[in-house]
Amino acid sequence: MSEIKVRDADFARTYADIHCACFDHGWNESMMRQMLLMPGAVGLIAYDRETPAGIVMYAYSPHQADIITFGVLPAYRGKHVSDELMEESFHLLTQKGIEEIFLEVAVNNEHAIALYRRHGFLQVGRRPNYYVRGDVKTDAFVMRTEL
Questions:
Q1: Beta-carbon neighbour count of residue 52 at 10 Å?
Q2: What would the pLDDT profile of 36-60 be if each residue is shown by its tens digit?
Q3: 8 Å CB contact between 40 and 71
């Protein structure tokens, strides 16, 4: 079982390290810091003992939140860290009065789509060419859940 902690911009380096380990074009420390300093931003880090294992970052406004990024280090995948992050963040957002959450996920990211579906997300739209990596363009599903 992971320990999940709310972490602010002081932990931008940790967010960036995990993001870069999870994604080919990870966000750097400066980008993470800027995002975490925005009004309505909240981030959580999952720890295995004292070792960071995963992150989730939201942007929220009254009654609604968007998952900005979500990632679990490869060594911790399949160990329920993603489920623990999702459950703890839902609890936190409910306390903040959030009623619904939206996200975008690459249509070919089967593991992430399965995670989101396990937690009640349903596809409500599709964004063509949402992710662009060089010459490769990938659509994104827009997904939504109610808390």
A1: 20
A2: 999 999 999 999 999 999 999 999 9
A3: no
